[in-house]
Design a protein that fits this description.
By secondary structure, the chain is an alpha+beta fold. It folds into 2 domains: 146 residues, no CATH class; 160 residues, Hemopexin. The protein is 40% helix and 20% strand. The longest helix has 43 residues. 21% of the residues are buried.
């Protein structure tokens, strides 16, 4: 099998990966708006928080799908439970000493048993500092103070403990039996008291390459980069046969460098702009319908503008490279092609 055939097969594989990643990306809003069966496992895309109840069940907050996934103590998937009605992108999980799951959905707090049956809903105030804490009787209450990042216990919540982090990123949850859950990428590892790995939790293995943001986000630039290099190599070989290898190498290196720099800047602009809009949506008063529509109304046109600007910049720089190469060729051959 020749190198060209191998490269064509590789490009087709990457293309299939990219298409599946697009489908996976579209499955997010599809599941949010249309729902999905509770028995259907989902990829661990945009994982928020996780806890373990006294009976060994592990709950994982997957914000990409607005779902909480439940697993048994052996890592077997049990069910996925939808968020409460609305669009609560600010969420968190905690467990009290009774073994109930405390789920924060923006301002409000929902108390579920380990079978995800609603016990109580506590309405919180619409405030920038949305802190919840357990009182001396173990009952959650809304507390307004000036602590922006309160210290939250990485274990079963006891009276006096804060319940949720202001910033996502729980790394460890210490279980009641002395073991601990450690987040490693898009999975959880459970270690015994002796430090031995006992259970692994995660999405289905065949869906892990489609999880967002990593590694699915690699599919797009990898495919376009491979297709671009392959196409430019063919074009350059047709244009000039003299000193082919050296010219093709230098030109492709220049174009790849330009493409990578522009792609990184565009990606940074997309992430930064999306974060600003999401923060603005979360800061709106509770019940404001703009909190739901602000993201798609502003973010999608913004992405289009960034894409068009990046494409125009790329074409302009590539055009300058073409002009430079043409001038050099003209000088070399005395102005004659």
């Amino acid at each position: 099998m020749t190198f060209n055939k191998i490269s064509h097969i590789f490009i087709k594989v990457v293309l299939a990966w990219m298409v599946c990643c697009v489908i996976s990306f579209l499955s997010g809003p599809t599941v949010i708006f249309l729902g999905s069966p509770s028995w259907l496992p989902l990829p661990w895309s945009d994982v928020g928080d996780y806890v373990q109840t006294n009976d060994g069940k592990v709950f994982v907050d997957v914000q990409f799908y607005n779902r909480v996934l439940c697993y048994d103590e052996n890592g077997k998937f049990i069910a996925s439970y939808p968020y409460p009605p609305g669009y609560p992108k600010v969420t968190g999980l905690a467990v009290n000493e009774e073994g109930n799951v405390l789920f924060r959905a923006r301002d409000d707090l929902y108390i579920y048993n380990s079978s995800w049956e609603l016990i109580e809903k506590i309405v919180g105030k619409d405030d920038v500092l949305r802190h919840w804490r357990l009182d001396e009787n173990g009952r959650p209450y809304y507390m307004k103070n000036n602590v922006e990042s309160p210290r939250v216990a990485d274990s079963v919540a006891k009276p006096g403990d804060y319940l949720f982090r202001s910033i996502r990123g729980r790394r460890v949850f210490r279980c009641a039996d002395g073991s601990k859950l450690v987040r490693e990428g898009h999975s959880l590892k459970k270690y015994s008291v002796e430090g031995k790995l006992t259970v692994s939790y995660g999405g289905p293995w065949f869906l892990r390459i489609f999880e967002f943001p990593w590694p699915a986000i690699l599919a797009w630039p990898l495919f376009f980069l491979l297709a671009f290099v392959s196409n430019r190599k063919k074009t350059l070989l047709k244009e000039d046969k003299s000193n082919v290898a050296e010219k093709v190498k230098k030109r492709i290196v220049s174009e790849v460098a330009i493409t990578v720099v522009i792609a990184v800047i565009a990606l940074a602009a997309i992430v930064f702009g999306g974060s600003l809009v999401a923060s603005a949506a979360n800061a709106l008063p509770k019940g404001n319908p703009m909190g739901f529509w602000l993201v798609p109304i502003i973010v999608i046109p913004y992405w289009i503008v960034v894409f068009v600007a990046a494409l125009w910049t790329w074409r302009s720089l590539i055009g300058r490279l073409d002009k430079r190469d043409n001038e050099r060729s003209a000088d070399r051959f005395g102005g004659c092609e």
